[in-house]
Amino acid sequence: MSRVRVVARATVVELLRRRAVVVLLFLVPLAFYLARHDLVGQSIRLATVGMAWALSTLAAFAGLAGQAIDPRLRLSGFGTFELLAGRVLGLWCLAAPLIAVYSTVILVDQGGLPRWPGVIGGLLLTALIAVPFGLLVAAVLRRPLESAMLLLVVSGLQVILDPFGLAARFVPFWSVRELGTWTVDGTDGGYVRRALLHAVAVVVLLGALTVLARVRALRSRPHLRLIEV
């Protein structure tokens, strides 16, 4: 557990050094939210889309940065699961203040929402899914530009696809859309149950696939050679 905390702390410190990244992390969801501020439901949904893309992209870049040092950390005794768990924990810690800020902004700005817990829940689900999703994309593609573009496409599909269609259920953030419908439109509790079940299944699946991808990558990488001078 101590090694997980070490990786988590290193992830947070490394990302906080990039002040522009931190600023954009907070501004991207705000831009999406203000784009349709006149419509309550659309503004909340777009805020989650902006947060999904910002957090998943941040996670992807953290994963790509970690791939360069993971082989050396493995030689130092760190396990693959410890590396990934620490990275996920660090990214979730960074997401916590983002959730708090936007929960406050939306609830104050859209005062009187009868189902306000759904706003907090939607932002929380977004963060829980975005982090492992970004890490998985980075583990598979291993390139920053391609990873960012794919994450943008998937985040956009969350808005474009019909939420009642079958294809929408294969989008990682479908649960957020489902919970948002319950929050804004006042639908029955079945939306909440489906959202939670979908979110749990997605997080478990993304985590398992990320572990498999990283284990395979580390095993296929040539061993580091020690050069004596």
UniProtKB/TrEMBL annotation:
Q: Domain of life, per the record?
A: Bacteria
* Signal sequence segment: none
The transmembrane segments are 20-36, 48-69, 89-108, 120-141, 148-175, 195-215
Which UniProt key words apply to this protein?
Membrane, Transmembrane, Transmembrane helix
State what protein this is by name: ABC-2 type transport system permease protein
Query: What organism is recorded for this protein?
Result: Petropleomorpha daqingensis
In the record, what lineage is assigned to the organism producing the protein?
A: Bacteria, Bacillati, Actinomycetota, Actinomycetes, Geodermatophilales
